[in-house]
Give the backbone structure.
Amino acid sequence: MGTKNDVWLGTLSLMVLRTLSTMGPQHGYGLARRIEQTSGDKLQLNYGTLYPALLKLEQDGAIRSEWGISDNNRRAKFYKITQVGRKHLERETRNWQETTAILARFLAPAEEV
Amino acid sequence: MMTLRGAWRRLCTALGAKDRDGDVGDELDSLLQMHIDDLRRTGVTEEEARRRALIELGGMEQVRQVVRDRRGLPSLEGWARDVKYAMRTLMRTPGFSLVAILVMALGIGTSVALFTVVRSVLLRPLPFPRPDRLVTLYSHDERSQPGTGNLTAPGDFYDWEKVSHGYEQMAIWRWSGYNMSSNGGDLPEFLNAGTCSWNLFATLGVNPALGRLSTPTDDQIGAEPTVILSWSFFKRRFNGDPGILGRTIRLNSRMYTVIGVLPEWFQYPDPKIQLWVPWQVDVTTDQVLTHFNHIFHVVARLKDGASAFAALQEVSAVEQQLYTRLRGSGPMEQDVVAIPLLEDVVGDVKTPLYVLLAAVVCLLSIACLNLSNLLVARSAARRREMAIRSALGSSRLSMIRQQLTESLLICLAGGGLGVLLAVGATRWLVGHWTELPRAYDVRPDGLAVSFALAITLLAGILAGLLPAISSTGGPILAALQDGSRGVGGNAARVSLRRALLTAEVALTVVLLIAAGLLFKSFVRLRTVDLGCTTKHVLTMTYFLRGEKYSKPEQIVDFDTQLLDKVRHLPGVEAAGLTNVVPGGGYYGDHEVWIPEHPAEATGVHRFAAYRTADPGYFSAMQIRLVRGRFFSDDERMERDKFVIVNEELVRQYFPGDENPIGKHLRVEWRTPEGESYEIVGVVGNTIYEIGKPVRPMMWFPILSGIPGNSGDSVLVVRSARDVLPLGVPIQRLIASLDRNLPVKNVLTMDQIVGESTANSSFSATLVLSFAALSLLLAAVGLYGVLAYLVTQRTVEIGIRMALGAKREGVLRLMLLDGLRPAALGLVLGVAASLGVTRLISSVLYGTSPLDPAVYLSVIATLLLSATFACLLPAWKAARIDPICALRTE
């Protein structure tokens, strides 16, 4: 199975929200594949991991779900980001960028100091 | 905000919202299908695609479970399910459940009861304001036992009070007693009383319930006599009528004005005290100022912020100066020790209480171990079930939780029952433990309830955890295969049970040995030779006090008339008078000199316990005459300068072969120059209190009639048969001589001995019954384990027999198998006891903590019980029919 990374806890909901926000409504299987693709196949996503995250987001009101028909004419449940979810995504994105920026400074090669 | 909403939804789902498992199933199915479609597109077969998709999904059931957990409140739902399931399991084996619950109830109940008593008596502060500032002060010299001291002379106390800065207040008190005359038709009554300095209640911080407390003017020589009543006496004798305030009552035929009533909760130092009188009312200036009469308890309250050490140093310095100045003229103490008031009140029962608490905790641990053991046996039977469940996707944690629920349920039921038991047991303990201080304070409180809850949960977890852990986990496949064959393969669990058994036996041994030691000590106490007869002897006490008995002839008249009448009663073999009977307490002593001997070195003082006797007393009590003679009938009134001493006094004060008869004892109790008494007889030693060493003793003629010296009388009556029926006729005789004279303590000698050994009888009996219970539990445990082993090894035994093993061989094999943990436990228990019993040596009398007889009999008892417990299953094993055994699978 190669050396694909497991998804870090906590970052998964951010990835889900971002994927739903840029690519529109998705079903669970598609979502998993998109996330794997976006990661450049560096991540491997198990439903056992994805499912609870989806459920939590839905309970928090960040996404909504409804049954629909997939491209291959299969019945599937589609997830869609809500207004609350967008705000959450915005806030979390900012936080994440700040954090990575700070960390980057620490980890940068020590030339200027 | 978002998590709040999430929590709300989850709660909604948990409480009654329709199960949406179907929905999740649909979604997972659709997912699986999409995955399969994807894989099919890459060209694999339908079957292979499904297989790969399923692997990648990571177990449908696990995902379903995670989703379910995520959606509702998993713990709540889980617990409810576990409880339902555990209930069902327990109901399926009602016998097992009932026994387990009862055993736990016993363990928890006794622990809670003892904890309630320990908490109420030893740990809860005394009911006074800022109780931690209260201390008792004792005079002290180098001969005092560590941590104790002696009573204090009033002169010393007043000197301490003058210089002390560290103590806010200090007060003195001592036991006293009064005859209360009949008052308008009431019966006369003897009252236990306290006599104290005016500020005792102020020092303790007590306010009166009614009226007022004493003032300094109430507590001086020549003051108008006043009395403060205890609440119980006020209720009992005066119907709680506040009109009694300001009225007078007659005590020792003197009138005392009632000025106050103490609150109901005030029971210091003993609930027996019915009233309090300021002490200087009844005494002379000499008695107030004396430094040689050590009679008082001192209670002091430390100032806020004052150092306890500095405060003590201050009074101790005064005592040292007094010692240096006065040691030549009389007995003096060297310094002062302070003991916290609580310690002073409860110090005597500390060790017995902690011993009992330790014993019940042992019992509870044994009960826990037993339950644990039984559960291990059950869980072994359920190992296959566990394996199947984990194969089907159940997590280990949830299986452990479910098994824990079972033991917790047992313990909760046991705990509930145990608390009921504890309420009864506490009441029983307080009712039957006559010498328990603060018994009136014993009641369950919040802490006791939390203790009950805590030990219940702890017991449940401890008993359940081991079996739960041992039956879950491990390779699933092995468990499934193991279950299908049923031969051996579960060595780990068997050794776990053996370890539990070993611990159980070890604890039982410790308990048995402690109980054996306490019991032996108690038997020693009961069989102590008092130095006199105790068979068919009745005693009763009266005090001749007040105006009516202020002259010697009045006292002698009463005593001789009474003795004459009693001796003529049918059934009376002999009668006599004394002030204290053997086993009745120390009472008091006096300093003595022997004029025929050279003067003692400065600071050396000789004492002898003070006793009185009439001419017939020694023969009535059958106290042995060693030398000389008893008193004669005419040695009375002024012709009283004769004394009888005991062998111990001769041994100590007449060393060598010196004949004491005809020598003199000088005492100074009426004049400073003293009076000399001729020694006319030496009698055998008698014990003043059971468990205490023999002391020098001297008897003076009670018929001297000196008020104060001869007024305290114990009438002893010996009969050839049961002496109790004589009690009422004798009391009638006393009433016919003086209608107003109360009689107290109508007791046989056996009752007196029984009372003074009540404490040790109590702890010995209790610990012994706990030990017997744990022995029973351990035996049941042994039986259970071996019986289980036999069923486990049926096939193996069958094979052995088929291959030619003899029945005796099988019997021996199984017996040894069961006895091995017992023997190991025995060794561990004995080793532990060698250390532990040292802790109870202070409550043992005439018994070494390493008493070999006790150890040997415990070892024998345990081996015997263990053998019996193992015999039945071993015998069963030996009776196995190899053909049937091999067919059992």
About this structure: The interface with chain A takes residues 2-3, 5-6, 9-10, 26-28, 30-31, 33-35, 37, 56-59, 62-63, 66-67, 70-71 of chain B (CB under 8 Å).
